[in-house]
Amino acid sequence: AQTVTQSQPEMSVQEAETVTLSCTYDTSENNYYLFWYKQPPSRQMILVIRQEAYKQQNATENRFSVNFQKAAKSFSLKISDSQLGDTAMYFCAFMKPRGGSTLGRLYFGRGTQLTVWP
Amino acid sequence: NAGVTQTPKFQVLKTGQSMTLQCAQDMNHNSMYWYRQDPGMGLRLIYYSASEGTTDKGEVPNGYNVSRLNKREFSLRLESAAPSQTSVYFCAASRTTDSPLHFGNGTRLTVT
Predict the structure, then answer these.
(1) N or C, which terminus of chain A has less Cβ within 10 Å?
(2) Position with higher pLDDT, B16 vs A32
(3) What average pLDDT does the segment B12-24 reach?
C-alpha cells in the first residue's frame, strides 16, 4: 500500500510571509501523480496544485508552488505572500495511474492545519 | 455550475437505523467516489465507481453499500448504522480514474 506522511500537524505564519508544508510518500511506482488539497473551515475540499511524477519541472499555481524531489520521495508545498484566506487544513495526496486493482486510487496524508495570522 | 452535490448536509441517526447519502455530479465525469474523513485522519476511500455500471470496494467498505444509478448519481447506503460510522462523508467525481478529484461539500453524519 502507498503511504503519505505529513509530519507537521499544525503550522502558523504571519500574513504576507512564506510558509512551506512538508509531505513525504512511499511508493515503488515510477509513474504517479501528487496533489495538494485545501480544506477551509467550510469543509469543502479544493484542489490547490497537481504534479506528474514524470515531469521534472515543479508545478506552480499563482502563489502556490511545489518542491518535488522524486528520489527523496518528497513533495512540499510553498505558499508565498500568505493571506488570511489561506487558513485551512492542507492535505497531500498520492495517486497511482489506473492499472491493476487500484484504478487510480487517491491516498491522503493526515493533513497540516495552517493558520495565517494578521 | 453546481459540480458535485451531496444531500443531506447533516444527519443524525440512531444505532441500527438505515439511510442513503445521495450524490450527483453535473460535470459528465466517468468516475465517482465515496470517502470518509475522521479527526486526525486523512480521507479514506469507502467505495468507488470507475465508470457507469461498475463499483468496487475501497479501503474501508464494511458496513456500506453503493449504487451507481446512472452516470450522474452515486449513492452510499448504511443498512444498519453504528457509532463507528460517525464521520464526515465526501462524494467526489473525476473525468477518469487518473484525473484530479472534484469533491462535494460533505455530509456530517452522527450515529448515537
Answers:
(1) C
(2) B16
(3) 97
CB B68 within 8 A of CB B2: no
The residue assigned the cell 494578521 is: A118
From the list A95, A105, A111, the residue facing B42 with the nearest CB is A111
A45 contact residues in B (CB cutoff 8 A): 43, 90, 92, 101, 103, 106
Question: Which residues of chain A lie closer than 8 angstroms to B92, CB-CB?
Answer: 45
Residue of B nearest to A32 (CA): B98
pLDDT at B9: 94
Per-residue confidence (pLDDT) for residue B86, from 0 to 100: 97
- Touching check for B95 and chain A: CB below 8 Å? no
C-alpha cell at A22: 512538508
Q: Where are any strands of DSSP class E within A15-111? A: 19-21, 24-26, 33-39, 46-52, 60-61, 64-69, 74-79, 88-95, 106-108
Contact partners, residue A7, CB within 8 Å, separation at least 6: A22, A24
Instruction: Tally Cβ neighbours within 10 Å of residue A83.
Output: 11
A103: nearest CB among B40, B50, B92: B50
Encode chain A (118 residues) as per-residue pLDDT tens digits. 668 999 999 999 999 999 999 999 998 888 889 999 999 998 999 999 999 998 889 999 999 999 999 999 999 999 999 999 999 999 999 987 765 445 567 889 999 999 999 9
